[in-house]
TrEMBL record:
Coiled coil: none annotated. It holds the Pfam family Peptidase_S9. The keyword Hydrolase applies. This is Oligopeptidase B. Residues 33-435 form the Peptidase S9A N-terminal domain. Residues 493-708 form the Peptidase S9 prolyl oligopeptidase catalytic domain. The keyword Transferase does not apply. Belongs to the peptidase S9A family. InterPro entries: AB_hydrolase_fold (IPR029058), Pept_S9A_N (IPR023302), Peptidase_S9_cat (IPR001375), Peptidase_S9A (IPR002470), Serine_Peptidase_S9A (IPR051543). Residues 1-24 form the signal peptide.
Length: 712
């Protein structure tokens, strides 16, 4: 299910847009921003006449729109010319820490070990494999086979995004799907790994893929070209025409297809915010009609795997934080359930991975991950525990069903990404590889801390901070506060090479686990959505207040950041408390909530009624209208703002941030910078190449450092 989950070539004439930019000016006070034209547009909604003078910016095909966006980019370049040397320095710092020629830890699937490999100077990975040794171990001297070269796929393209790859059961074919615009519109292709030839079979707008056991049949889901809802399931026998297997008629649901770990079934998964349904197709009988596992009942969310002739089902029926049950394939209804993992009030079951003899269950409690292993034969549990205050530990996927070990990734804000192998029988861990940080990185120079903030309604909100040791909490430290808080997505305390450049300059980084995610369980999401959405904004403000009142920073040293639905957060809290923040970075921000959610033809809109509310209903309309950032801009002083986005964004339309900036310029009473930076060749995730992505991050960080008055 999709969610809203980031050099000027020449002078751009702005005269036709009623504004101007002096590109040669050295003093930014003399540089004038572009002035967006206005037009007449209005609509009556629930008796309210709504006007939108910047509605013309919705017309991407209009050259005037592109001219205006280029003018905004030219203005931003002129206003930030003085930070370019610092941005270049930050980019080089991060690149110097990065091991540019590297490969992932090979993982076994069948008779091969698979891995991705990077080469210095190249933007994209090579997708590789090598044969396993006779004893099944990885033979590093075995001949490498490059299955796909991401750099070759990207040749001549301004953007290349790999949607995914799937290897056929016999390992002779690879299905892969690629996007060349940033609009997340992927084209499926199949390559014969024996001959190296790409087959003629090709399909547009593919979102997920699964192989049947015959190595000739692919199941795939396809999205609607307008709404981008994955609403159709197809079966494709290679060399033949695709056959539609199922159409999902309910607009709130999207489809995804995959296979069970033991490869016994193809599973079709339909998901909305609060309800799911699974269907099973025997993988060795791909033309068999799909059969619903547990049907569809509003409020019931479940997902399915299989093991030893049984379905394994993660279900929230009578279990808000989910439980795990098994049931016979022939009779999987609730009357035949056997509980494997009980429901826990203080622990959310976020997922599971099944093996022939073991089951690994991923859980989250008190905003931290843990993994428990179940022995099917002994019916016993063991927990993989970590002692750090702040960390991330998660299953990374072990393709081999019969494996006696599993792969996990461990990292923390001060510990680089570490791949571990866990013995499923003993629980013992072995480090296979830790991300190398070049240049003499010393983790002992930094520290991470847990923070608990009591919100205005008495709820305790978790957060974490990372900083260089020795930074005094005297209110003078520059601080970057980040949060998301939507869709039940948990933010994780990960390690970042780029962030080190901020920490080394005395910046404190804080991430707040505000309501709207599931860091504290399913109720955390429930309490930050629909008619409780404002809890998300209140939590963020309360964390910011806590940080300023307790010496972590001060209002003139506090910068905030969020992207996508986190960009909605940025817009909302800036409207509510503009006095609280020094500066704001809003990335691909969902700020024009009402115009988007009132247009059912737009991608994601109808599927998100269950997250935000259906504005066609008066009560929901009034509530959403009361916090929509674009609709609540006022004539007052605002913090400095950098708004970044992509022209080909399919999750948050480019015109949302463009209109937001245009309107805010007419209302703000301060002299703080308001900048729009639009990547004209990318979408929701920003630049696709690894170096280009680093440059975007370096620019954003350089702009923040400049706001803090840090010049080097």
């Amino acid at each position: 299910m999709k969610i809203r989950h980031l050099s000027i070539a020449g002078f751009v004439s702005l005269m036709s847009l009623q504004g101007g930019v002096s590109m040669a000016a050295s003093n930014t006070d003399s540089i004038k921003p572009p002035v967006a034209a206005t037009s007449q547009w209005q609509e009556v909604r629930h008796g309210e006449t709504v006007t939108d003078p910047y509605r013309w910016l919705h017309k991407k095909e209009d050259p005037k729109v592109i001219d205006y966006l280029k003018a905004e980019n030219a203005y931003t370049d002129a206003m930030t010319a003085h930070v370019k040397p610092l941005a270049d320095k930050l980019f080089q710092e991060t690149r110097a820490r990065m091991k540019e020629t590297d490969l992932s830890v090979p993982v076994r699937r069948g008779n091969y070990y698979y891995y991705n490999r990077f080469e210095a100077g190249k933007q994209y990975p090579f997708f590789c494999r090598r044969p396993a040794a006779a004893n099944g171990q990885d033979d590093v001297n075995a001949k490498e086979e490059i299955m796909l070269d991401g750099n070759a796929l990207a040749e001549g393209q301004k953007f290349m995004g790999m949607g995914g790859t799937k290897i056929s059961p016999d390992a002779n074919l690879i299905a892969y799907w690629v996007d060349y615009t940033g609009y997340r519109q992927f084209r499926l292709q199949v390559k014969d790994l024996r001959s190296g030839k790409v087959l003629s079979d090709s399909v547009e707008r593919v979102t997920s893929v699964a192989w049947a056991a015959d190595n000739q049949t692919l199941f795939y889901t396809q999205e609607d070209p307008v709404t981008k809802r994955s609403d159709r399931l197809f079966r494709l026998k290679l060399g033949s025409q695709p056959e539609q297997v199922y159409y999902e008629p309910v607009e709130q649901f999207a489809l995804e297809v995959g296979t069970t770990k033991d490869r016994a079934f193809v599973i079709v998964h339909a998901q909305s915010t609060d309800t799911t349904e699974d269907w099973a197709i025997p993988a060795d009988k791909p033309t068999t009609a799909m059969r619903s596992v547990l049907g569809r009942q509003t409020g019931h969310r479940y997902d399915t795997d299989s093991h030893n002739g049984q379905f394994l089902i993660r279900t929230n029926r009578n279990a808000r934080n989910f439980r795990l049950v098994s049931a016979p394939v022939a009779t999987p209804d609730e009357a035949h359930w056997t509980t494997i993992a009980e429901h826990q009030n203080d622990g959310l079951i976020t997922g599971y991975e099944v093996f022939e003899h073991y089951l690994a269950v991923a859980e989250k409690s008190q905003a931290l991950n843990r993994i428990r292993i179940y022995d099917f034969a002994k019916k016993s549990w063991k927990t993989i525990a970590f002692d750090d205050q702040v960390y991330l530990a998660m299953n990374t996927g072990t393709p081999e069903y019969r494996s006696g070990t599993m792969r996990i990734n461990y990292q923390s804000p001060v510990t680089p990404s570490t791949v571990m192998e866990v013995d499923l029988a003993s629980g013992q861990r072995k480090v296979l590889k830790q991300q190398e940080v070049l240049g003499g990185y010393d983790a002992s120079r930094y520290e991470a801390r847990r923070i608990w903030v009591t919100a205005r309604d008495g709820v305790r909100v978790p957060a974490w901070a990372v900083m260089k040791k020795g930074v005094e909490l005297n209110g003078k430290a520059p601080l970057l506060l980040y949060a998301y808080g939507s869709y039940g997505i948990s933010m994780e305390p990960s390690f970042s090479l780029a962030r080190l450049s901020l920490l080394d300059r005395g910046v404190i980084y804080v991430q707040a686990h505000i309501r709207g995610g599931t860091e504290m369980g399913e109720h955390w999401h429930d309490d930050g959505m629909l008619m409780k959405k404002k809890n998300t904004f209140y939590d963020f403000i309360d964390v910011a207040e806590y940080l300023t009142k307790n010496g972590w920073t001060s209002r003139d040293r506090l910068i905030i950041e969020g992207g996508s639905a986190g960009g909605l957060l940025m817009g909302a809290v800036t409207n509510m408390r503009p006095d609280l923040f020094k500066a704001v970075h809003a990335a691909v921000p969902f700020v024009d909530v009402m115009n988007t959610m009132m247009d059912a033809s737009l991608p994601l809109t109808t599927g998100e009624y269950l997250e935000w509310g259906n504005p066609n209903e008066k009560a929901a309309y009034d509530y959403m209208r009361s916090y929509s950032p674009y609709d609540n801009l006022e004539k007052k002083a605002y913090p400095a703002m950098l708004v970044t986005t992509g022209l080909n964004d399919s999750q948050v339309m480019y015109w949302e941030p463009a209109k937001y900036v245009a309107k805010l310029r007419t209302l703000k009473t301060d002299n703080n910078p308001l900048l729009l930076k639009m990547n004209m060749d990318a979408g929701h995730g920003g630049a696709s190449g690894r170096y280009d992505a680093l440059k975007e991050t370096a620019f954003n960080f350089a702009w923040m450092l400049d706001q803090w008055g840090i010049k080097e």
